[in-house]
Amino acid sequence: MIIIMEPSATQGQIQTVVNALHNKGFKTVLNKGDVMTVIAAIGDKRIIDPHSFQSYDGVRSVKLIQEPYKLASREGRQEDTVIEFSNGVRIGGLEKPVIIAGPCCVEQDLDGLLRVAEAVKEMGCNFLRGGAFKPRTSPYDFQGLEEKALEYLAIAREKTGLLIVTELMDTLDLDMVCQYADVIQIGARNMQNFKLLKAVGKCDKPVILKRGPAATIREFLLAAEHIMYNGNDKVILCERGIKGVDNNSTRNTLDISAIPVIKKYSHLPIIVDPSHGTGRRYLIEPMAKAGLIVGAHGVMMEVHHDPENASSDGAQSLSIPMFKDVAKRLNKLIGRIDYDNKHSMSMV
Fold first, then answer.
1. 113, 273, 281, 306 from 327: Cα distances, Å
2. Is the pLDDT of residue 312 over 80?
3. Which domain holds residue 285?
4. Residues 19 and 90 occupy one common structural domain
5. Are 31 and 98 found together in one domain?
6. Average of per-residue pLDDT across 257-282
7. Rounded to a whole number, what is the distance in angstroms from the first to the last CA of the chain?
């Protein structure tokens, strides 16, 4: 932390700041220039609010050198985090990127969900996503089937072997969701629901944390820090688009640059969600490819057996035939699956 004093700061004001830092256990180095004095403070700034020094007489500004997210930062851990799942799949580091796919929400049609799950399995994917609890802007929109949806997802897992990813919205539902889910998703609207982050931090399930629509990367990583601080280091970040200037053409603006930026500053794996990031099914494939090219550890896509009649987000959902075509091309890009012909595939 660096504290820059005003040119007019008196020696007494400078000493007051230095004494306050010493009392908090900081070491200080003074650099007295011709115009102003700069105080370098060395210590653990988590024990104080650095910006509290802004109120001291004679202080011009306070600048932070280290980021406040310690556990999620490469400052604390240089090597990439790699999360291993019960089926042997690994996400992060130099592992092959994964594809997570499924409907925005689980509906009454169990057969439709199973058709999607079978297609996801057929295309070599390992994760089925599906919403049981749906945060909707309008109270009149479909809110999800709750535990019934979780039961449907469990049936799909039993039939296909896919791991289940589903969203948690409320701490009251944590135990129920943990009974069914293999991976807990924290949605964009709850990225800064700190009580919820604390709760999933105390469970042993991997967590996919989605970036909020107006969140900076720093705020995003601090949200991950809340989960890790409470004991759960199995966090997967998800870039899913932020609010931009033209949300008539797209639902959100998918921040592709966030992926390499996060990989520079954090060791946590990061995936990309082009379905929510664009809101347009024709943009899913090109934006998924863009995310993979810049280093995403995976792609999350919405797939529905009948998108035109979906209860939510049909416009950003791929039909099953479209999904198979897109997944085929993404798998070739990933280099995970070599398709010998239209109907057969072999692992490489």
1. 18, 14, 13, 18
2. yes
3. 83-347
4. no
5. no
6. 96
7. 50
